[in-house]
Amino acid sequence: MTYLFGAILMAIILFLWIRGRSVKKKLDYKNKELQSLQNETHKQIQSQQEYISILSQELRIPLYGIMGLTNLLAEDYPELKNNEKLKSLKFSGDYLLTLINNILHVNYLDSEEILSQNGSFDIKEMTQNLVNSFSYATENSDNTLHFDFDSEIDPLINGDPAILSQILMNLISNALRFTKNGNVYFSVSLIKKSENKTTISFKIKHDGFEITKEDEKSIYQEFIDVEQAKKSYLGTGLSVTVVKKLAKALHGEIVIQNDSQAGSEYAFTADFETIQNKDNATAKIKSNTAINNPKLKALVVDDNKLNLLVAEKMLSKENFDCTTIDNGFDAIELTKENTYDIVLMDINMPKLNGIGTTKRIREFDTKTPIIALTAVDVTQLNRQIIQAGLNDYILKPYNKNHLLEIINKNIIPS
What we know:
seven-stranded mixed sheet, 52% helix, 14 helices, 12 strands, five-stranded parallel sheet, single chain
């Protein structure tokens, strides 16, 4: 009896072991299938991200030329400052840039951090220009955009004007999108100020339809607009997907408040560095050299002829002797034969890109500041830029003040 019981027990154990092995093989097979599927999905996502990145870059390149020439026209012909055609062109360029940046940031919403590039800027001038750029849009929609700037704010602060501008343009454009024959109120208010930090609140309020609590939960997560906007207003709702991520890059937050009788309000609050020596900072923004100083020599490397033209025009007005070249190989030879105070290097060039060109220049010249000019989001290039020996970067399209400040920060005093 004991032997029979032992045999049965052994048979059961053997059966369970064989069954366990079989189950384990099936699980291993399923795990391999799942891992293979995950790898394939990852490859597809990565491929999609790379495609969107390339597409965004290709869109930015001609846009840089359009926006650059528009700004140069406004400078060269002051009488065109209030020209409706030029204003509508500028608004279209600014708005298109915001949409391109939105797409790029959505592309890396979960996988990458959005890097900020701080510098001193005039926040009063920036917000006023932003309001002015919407004048064409408000006229077409029969809306009125009201603007109030707190006089207690020191206009010159330190922060990232590009990201701040993108946040505000998104919020204002959404407020205008959800309003027809109504009002949008944009206010910039001082919350508190210390020796080193200035806290500023940006509020955009509209008297269009109310954003419901249900919409409020999903408005930052979905690639769709709220249902009412679908019926009556233009827009994809894509922009609201990224504003929270952008706000986080500035260590701020977005808050939505609703009033069933008075529409909705978007509030964004962030800290900015207080600038101590305002006279010196203002001088740096306006120009990086005194008018009586000898001209500084700049080399601009870019395979796009229109981009070269815009950069040359910008720099020649600011006391620079500017040389332009359209490829990396000639740039290497020029830097061997000449001494430059600054080199502006396009990253995406055929045959030899800006990274490779800079690496070769650094073999014989480690001192000349080289600034990357790139239409590719720097979250992808940050490590390569540092390893190549580039001193800094400027994201295309850029404005003259930002260009001059980056140059001024990196230039070697003679």
